[in-house]
User: What shape does this take?
Amino acid sequence: RFIARLSLSLLQCTGVRVTVQHSQADADLPIVLAAIESSKEGTTMLVGDDTDLFVCLVHYISLHAEQCQRIVMLRPSSQTVVDVTNVVSHLSELVKSNILAIHAISGCDTVSSLFGIGK
Assistant: This one.
């Protein structure tokens, strides 16, 4: 419900370029790629609580750093905003190039799969 209300509010804004993309299923990659494309034109805000979104953003921002402007992520559950572009700028190349593998091996956003517990 929060996302639907936010979408309506954003679309009603005047003088602001807003693109709203909804996904009912697991659509982390299309959402992240849409944010990357949008960031080529200006500051972009992605709204979501999923850790997978954050990790994918870090990966794709590092691949497209020269083309991306600022991308921030609003996490409604904690009411926090994370400047993902800034986070990426402080990560080592080793972390940026391996973040997807690290995330998958660690069990993504659940208990470590190394212990046989996962999604």
In short: Strands lie at 44-47, 71-75, 80-83. The CA atoms of residues 44 and 71 lie 5 Å apart. The chain is about 45% helix and 10% strand.
